[in-house]
Design brief:
Oligomer: single chain
Radius of gyration: 21 Å
Number of strands: 2
């Protein structure tokens, strides 16, 4: 499956990257290993990871496939460790930015300028990583550090100038969404299939296009643009943004699950951490924006 997450769509657990279960060699007289349990796997020859003759039977009866015979495969511990490291880097730099870049009247312009510069460079690093064939821990951690600077200053501005306690509320909201989506996904209440992916992609494309148009109107026409980020419409779009983030979390969980099941290499855990971090940043920013709008109103 080609992930909607820009990280996974380039090199992660996608159909054409040659990892077990996604680029599987057909067995004699039957379907390819992994295709019966994975609706996105396509039978292709030359998969070095399809070495388990019982994988098809396991998947048919709902059991997880046995681990590949080779070593160096991604595990859940790898995903948790890399994700914790990436998020930890982001949190530390955000705390430092909050403490060292004041947002009082005398310093807010300088602090905001540094934050915007850090955010732009972080965006460039994220794009570079998305188009690389392999995960680069240095790029991923650099992105997290710069994104932390941006979030630290923005959170400080909102917390000190618009709504006291907004940052903590946004953190709690993000944690609640993550937990709810994880529970719903594990319970089978969310089924990530082709229809779900298509719906999320269409909704995300429409959302991004509307926000881009609103930004252009705000830059060239002044004010709040078309009002998509303020007032009642801003509240509606803030909720939609959070729901989209929740959908992307489900896609991220699916990618991690497939990577574990079909033997993705261990370094791909960095891509899992990268994708989860970007999604959590999206949800946090939407919560922060929504809280700002509600307090302004």
């Amino acid at each position: 499956m080609r992930s909607s997450n820009p990280v996974f769509s380039r090199r992660g657990f996608s159909r054409d990257n040659g990892y077990a279960g996604f680029n599987t060699a057909p067995q004699a007289g039957g379907a390819a290993v992994g295709t019966q349990g994975n609706p996105y796997a396509q039978p292709q020859a030359g998969n070095p990871y399809a070495q388990n003759p019982y994988a098809q039977q396991d998947l048919q009866y709902g059991a997880p496939p046995q681990a590949p015979a080779t070593t160096g495969r991604m595990t859940m511990d790898d995903v948790i460790l890399r994700t914790g490291t990436t998020l930890g880097t982001l949190v530390v730099t955000a705390a430092l930015a909050w403490a060292l870049l004041p947002v009082d009247d005398a310093n807010i312009s300088r602090s905001y300028g540094i934050a915007i510069a850090a955010g732009l460079v972080g965006m460039v690093l994220a794009l570079v990583q998305s188009f690389k064939r392999k995960a680069s821990p240095a790029l991923i951690l650099s992105y997290a550090a710069l994104e932390g600077v941006f979030l630290g200053v923005v959170s400080s501005v909102v917390d000190n100038r618009i709504a006291s306690g907004a940052a903590m509320q946004a953190v709690l909201g993000t944690m609640a969404v993550f937990t709810a989506v994880l529970v719903a996904y594990k319970a089978g209440w969310i089924r990530v299939n082709r229809r779900f992916v298509g719906f999320v992609m269409a909704a995300a494309l429409g959302f991004v296009l509307l926000m881009a148009v609103n930004l252009l109107f705000a830059v060239f026409g002044g004010g709040d643009g078309l009002g998509f980020r303020s007032g009642p419409l801003g509240i509606v779009f803030g909720i939609v943004g959070i729901l989209l983030g929740a959908c992307f979390l489900a896609l991220d969980f699916k990618q991690v699950e497939d990577g574990l099941a079909y033997g993705a290499p261990r370094e791909e855990a960095w891509l899992a951490a990268f994708g989860l971090t970007m999604t959590l940043v999206w949800i946090y920013m939407e919560f922060l924006r929504l809280i700002s709008i509600l307090n302004n109103d």
